[in-house]
Please model this.
Amino acid sequence: MSGRAPRKERGRRFFFSCCLAAVLVAFLPRSAAAVPIHDYHQITTLLRNISGASSASEVRRLLSEAAKQEHYLPADYPLHEGEKGIGVIWWDGGIPRCRVWLKNVDAGKLFRDILPSRYFAEGVTASGKIDIDAEILSGDAPQLRGTLRLRDLTVQWTRGKIALKGVEGTVPFRRFIGLARRNRPALQPRSVHVDHLVWAGRDLADSFEARAAYENRILRFEGMSFVAMSGSVIGSMVLDHRSAEWKTAVLLRLRGIDLSRLEELLPGLPILARFTDAHMDGKIGIAFLAPDRLQVTGRLESTDPGMIEISPRLKRLLEKRVASRSIPFSKLKISLEQRRSGPLQARIDLYHKTAQTIGELLSGERFAPGVTTIRFPLIPLIRELSR
Model:
């Protein structure tokens, strides 16, 4: 007797298999078909919520909730004066994923819609246009990643009086969520063009290249190379908004800087002194950590002789040390020093020749240069000079 079941039994099994498959499909998540999103508000809300998520389960929940909403708009729905946006959510092995595109969006509006408002409490403003291509992953390494296409972007930090104007290029971005960020290589920056670097309302540099990346709420500009104050400057900038307040840090390597043009970096410097006929090399680091916290580090040294002409106010303070407002020097050193319990101070060492008698000259006595040292609290001075 054959082991094969009768035809009626085989038909009954096939019927029950079809019923079971139908039941499973009915209760599966909306997996095979992708869910489109054409609502700008929904896209930006999703990006804001994902960027603030803290775990993979929270990312999956946010994507699943977004996929259940039924108020999607037509694909050709205009957002704001030609702006377009579209998103799609699908399931990959039961894990939700999402990709969104926003095109020709106003930068200021986009930042306000995506970033929490507290990040702009210190007067961060933006203008220009941005395209976004973003992907949301919710698996073992949940993350938000993609690129920002910048077109004539201007970003200004009023507290630090720093602005980048006319930024063009593509900036990669990424934010790991939860424990996914551990032991991950840094995001590789891409080249962008900057028309103007503005400091204290003045153009410090024009038309230069930089490399930029935005990762885990830290925006980095590296390899900035430009001509300023008749010398060459190589710099980097970091903008950190992981906390409720923006933190800005700038590091500049200076070479061949004309001291007579130092007021371009400190606009109020003539109140204190003027320098002439000298060039300097060195490093300067400036960090704005809070409205009342400013840190400055650095060391500058002249490469040729020159002269400093101090103001009448400074002359009165230094009356016992200097005889004239005009002080020639063979070398000038400017350094910043932090005493244990005191404020950050600037130290200026002026190396100058001392007079020699005829007897000393005839005896061949070696020349011993004189040194004039000036110290003053740095932070109040910078606040006054940068006004």
